[in-house]
Amino acid sequence: MTSKILTVRMDAHPDDSHTLARYEATGGYDALRSALSTMTPDQIIDEVKASNMRGRGGAGFPTGVKWGFLAEAEPRYLVVNADESEPGTFKDRQLLERDPHQLIEGIVISSYALGVERAYVYIRGEYPKPARRVQRAIDEAYAAGYLGADILGSGFSLDVVVHLGGGAYICGEETALLNSLEGRRGEPRLKPPFPAVEGLYAKPTIVNNVESISNIPWITTHGGAAYAAIGPERSAGTRLFSLSGHLKKPGNYEIVMGITWAELIHEIGGGIRDDNALKTWIPGGASAPWMVPSEHLDTLVTIDDVAQQGSMLGSGAVVVMDETTNVVAAAHSIVRFFAHESCGQCTPCREGTSWLEDVLTRILDGRGRPEDLPLLLDVSDNISPGLTWPPAMTTICPLGPSATAPITSIMKWFRPEVEAMIGTPEPAHA
Predict the structure, then answer these.
(1) DSSP-H helix ranges across 99-173
(2) Fold observed for domain 327-422
(3) Is the Cβ–Cβ distance between 284 and 301 less than 8 Å?
(4) Is the alpha carbon torsion for 220, 226, 229, 233 positive or negative?
(5) pLDDT by residue (tens digit) across 81-107?
(6) What is the pLDDT, as a whole number, of residue 429?
């Protein structure tokens, strides 16, 4: 059983893994041929369900179950979310640039299974090279008969369109993405109805992440049970992690989940650069609460184990910070990002994130007041009441509550450091 699925080709053939010739020479599109000639759509869906693959975009919802929610109305659409805007995440970029045909084959198989005749790949506007690579691969696939009318003589037809976003983080949220794809302002929609019932152009739509769809050819070839046998039961398969920050070996790594954070950071990531001490890390992108070595190094890298510790694997972005990190400055950077990227639709997010940024700015500038600490928590509580995890929602999408994660993290794990920057610790009774 292999421990790599998505990166085998690019590791073995780094110079031309993105080309159709290399893809075909290494078994590419064999899964599609088999699916179209020997499998029914329901059989493919059953294999995806059996794989227990959970979405790789952040929410971690089982992909096969999500497919099962697709309404019967027609036309139906498949939208691949390649709006990889979460700070610290760059895994999908690798898949888009270095193995786009793997994604395209996954799109065609998925579309056949779902009864889709038109699919979209929504790529963030800051990814011009990945977009060019995907478009070139799509053109090659059309020329070779893997896209278009009567694919491989099967009677199944599919068109795939690449759409570049305008650079808004909020369009990573699936309904905001759909609004953007329709030419409207990128704002999240109220749910229900969910996209599987009423999505693109008010028609049933499945929105899946790049990594999720890129796994479909392997699952089709080897079966859902083989995929489910890789790794822990509820975190099956391999997963791409983007390691960044104060590491000796930052980069993307495809791993089988179930290792410890100590192994991921110190062995795979090479440990902390300059041999400094590990201070904290964000396990799943800027939206995730932070983890600390005194509590979490032995925690398993799985969706459920991290959730039990009050955080999430999210988008697979692991941002590591060493002992030299000013945690207030780190929190400020994240909060400033969320404040800037808020679509402004919901008052708690629009106003609350700006308030958090202002208070953290004041502390960093040496103008902090003792009352700023309870103020940070009070504003956060107004955005996400109770400051629990998963966060309570007062907004249409999770952007606002996500901005509270760095606040609760520094107040829980590094409060004395924050107090020291103010100069006068908060009274014990407050």
Answers:
(1) 100-114, 128-144
(2) de novo design (two linked rop proteins) (1.20.1440)
(3) no
(4) positive
(5) 999 999 999 999 999 999 999 999 999
(6) 42
Per-residue confidence (pLDDT) for residue 418, from 0 to 100: 96
Query: What pLDDT is attached to residue 161?
Result: 98
**Residue labelled with tokens 């309870």:** 374
Q: By the 8 A CB rule, do 206 and 196 touch?
A: yes
Would you call 122 helix, strand, or coil by DSSP? strand
Strands 77-82 and 118-123: what pairing? Answer: parallel
> What does DSSP assign to residue 329?
H
* Distances in whole angstroms, Cα of residue 36 to Cα of each of 112, 116, 146: 8, 14, 11
Which pair of tokens denotes residue 257? 């989940």
Question: In terms of Cα–Cα distance, which of 285, 339, 325, 284 is closest to 414?
Answer: 325
**What parts of the chain have a pLDDT lower than 70?**
1-2, 423-430
R_g of the chain computed on alpha carbons: 22
Do residues 88 and 334 lie in contact, with contact meaning Cβ atoms separated by under 8 Å?
A: no
The C-alpha angle 160, 98, 199, rounded to 5 degrees, equals 30
Between CA 106 and CA 214 the distance in angstroms is: 5
Q: Which is it for the CA torsion 333, 357, 367, 374, positive or negative?
A: negative
| Longest CA–CA separation in the chain, Å | 76
The dihedral formed by the CA atoms of 38, 39, 40 and 42, expressed in degrees to the nearest 10: 170
What would the CATH number be for the domain defined by 238-322? 3.10.20.600
pLDDT per position as a tens digit, 365-407: 999 999 999 999 999 999 999 999 889 999 999 999 999 999 9
Separation between Cα atoms, residue 367 and residue 377, nearest integer Å: 18
What integer pLDDT is reported at residue 428 of this predicted model?
47
CA distance 348 to 31: 47
State residue 59's pLDDT score: 76
The CA dihedral of 98, 101, 105, 110, to the nearest 10 degrees, is 50
Q: Where are the domains of the chain?
A: 8-228, 238-322, 327-422
Q: Which of 313, 29, 293, 340 is nearest to 154 (CA)?
A: 29
For residue 213, the 8-state DSSP code is H
Size (the chain), residues: 430
- Domain spanning 8-228, CATH class: alpha beta
User: Residue 110 contacts by C-beta under 8 Å, 6 or more apart in sequence?
Assistant: 44, 67, 78, 116, 119, 206, 208, 213, 216
